[in-house]
Amino acid sequence: MHHVKSNRVRSADEVRKDFERKGITIMSFARDHGLSPGIVYQLLSGQKKGRRGEAHRAAVLLGMKEGVIEQGADA
């Protein structure tokens, strides 16, 4: 189990600006973290809330929510 806690939860706009500042693409972030690029795009556009499965994992890794990522859990 991996618990991710940041100082504060970031908005989708803050995540996008951070990616731009660092020169990171959504595709590369998704690939580097074993995520579906579609799910990352959906989270950043507000189409998904990140409540369960891979969307939850992506939201936690993006810093859009605090949460626990279970090791070996299916996405």
Automatic annotation (TrEMBL):
Top-level division of the source organism's lineage: Bacteria
InterPro entries: BcepMu_gp16 (IPR026365)
Keyword entries, A-Z: DNA-binding
UniProt GO MF annotations: DNA binding
Protein name according to UniProt: DNA-binding protein
Species per Swiss-Prot/TrEMBL record: Marilutibacter chinensis
